[in-house]
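A reminder before we start the practical. When you read a complex entry, don't treat the lines as separate problems. The point of joint prediction is that each chain is placed relative to the others, so the output describes one connected object in space. Small molecules and nucleic acid strands, if listed, are placed in the same frame. In the example below there are two entries. Take a minute to note the order of the lines before looking further.
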Amino acid sequence: MTLLLVKTHMSYKGFLEKIKACNTTNIGDYIPFIIDQQQHGWIKPVFAKKLAAWPEIFILNNKSVRLADSIQGFKKRSEAVDEATHKLVQQGVIKVHLDEPYPVTAGDRNQAVMTLDRSAVPYFGLRSFGQHLNGFVRKSDGIHLWIARRARDRHIAPGKLDNMVAGGLPWHISLEKNLIKECAEEAGMDESLARQAVPTGTISYLAESDKGIKPDTLYCYDIELPDDFTPVCTDGEVESFELMPVNKVMDIIHDTGEFKLNCNLVIIDFFIRHGLLDPDQEAYAELVSSLHQ
Amino acid sequence: MTLLLVKTHMSYKGFLEKIKACNTTNIGDYIPFIIDQQQHGWIKPVFAKKLAAWPEIFILNNKSVRLADSIQGFKKRSEAVDEATHKLVQQGVIKVHLDEPYPVTAGDRNQAVMTLDRSAVPYFGLRSFGQHLNGFVRKSDGIHLWIARRARDRHIAPGKLDNMVAGGLPWHISLEKNLIKECAEEAGMDESLARQAVPTGTISYLAESDKGIKPDTLYCYDIELPDDFTPVCTDGEVESFELMPVNKVMDIIHDTGEFKLNCNLVIIDFFIRHGLLDPDQEAYAELVSSLHQ
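Here is the predicted structure of the whole assembly.
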């Protein structure tokens, strides 16, 4: 096998730790959020009690929170819950209303049954979606990856390392269009270059915050870049970019906490797909399957 | 995105059906098989009753079958259960003893706690491991895949389509060595060519037969082949090979049952990793995650 780049002395323990760090949820602490007889999210009992103020919208018992069956259809569901969300913001239960509708779905993002403001998504434990792009260059000594350093003024993960392009997915924009937009904003790529990105699958994990569960699905992409391309950030999210040999990226991910947590998983998936990890190593199969939770 | 080859009018329903066909198990029909306080397999209650004949080896209750804690260590466990396996063959409960030790593991194949004869593996519902290789050629009109037609005299899936190289994994041979051996036997590849195969991850599924549950993990590989290479079967497993345009392979997998069941999953994973499926299509993320069960 073309394992020239594999450092077979390296255990994969540090990779497994990074995946576990994105899957910290104890599901037993939550109760299901049900729409139309199907579970869509997970709610903390303490938040469920707040929802009891709207018995015409939320049907509560000890085992679940159910959206009232009398509220049918995409628009009516979205409006009813958004009204409650606004009041929860007034009550100080939810910090802010962002006016960014996110899809509510038990399957893919294009199978949504309603929308919910982005700010409320973790409280209802709903799956959210993102896109991450690995930008790489093939050199005579192997693959090099373009790695971003996040700006120090970010709310999330200031100063941490990041994928070349990465972002959340608002409602009602296709993956294709959103990726082209993010490639322009975050790396200064024109549309014709961005269209050379190759979709390579998804990864998923079950994170947790003080707000609740955050199940995430990230759509992953690779782009092989020409030698003379240098990414330029145009929206202030990134402080700088560095083209790193893949072995250096491997060491950083395995041995440090330098990367924004979920980026570790996107790049471990990149290592696997490109044959940079050795399946004869202990826990290789566990590594692969744990990227899909 | 480089979706030139994607037939966006095609739904992915036929792909999901193929994945479901490899995941037919109703886990509620089985009880756990436990070694050293950790679950390793799933056993049918009717088979558990047969194991009651060896109370010094198998500790039974209604909820589980446990390997006696008095039997400690890799060698002693393997010998004790192999003795019972031989007697189960004499009793006609298990058809045959194959003298092929398989690893018994709750994790990767190199984390085994004992071995068990291959013939007994499905009765204990233990995970087994295989290797599948996608052989492909890049032409001006896109990717072409080398597809095998299985010999008509095979016990398993006679006459069905198959990956270029595919095989089960015996105990105590590395993935690397076994792949080189299978590449020689099944496709007439010399070692230097076989070593160009790139490991790309795993897929897993939970199949079921009249014997019991068969959880499988397949280590997947890609090899990009030169134009002038033609695979030649040397061990009688394959009747013929055909180099097919990837769109033709997509149609066959989506619309027919021509492929051996688990090969569908290996090739769907190939489509995903090579950017041949469109993430904006319904159920794309479900497709990816359902390849890891």
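Discuss with your neighbour: The two ends of chain A are 29 Å apart (CA to CA). What might explain this?
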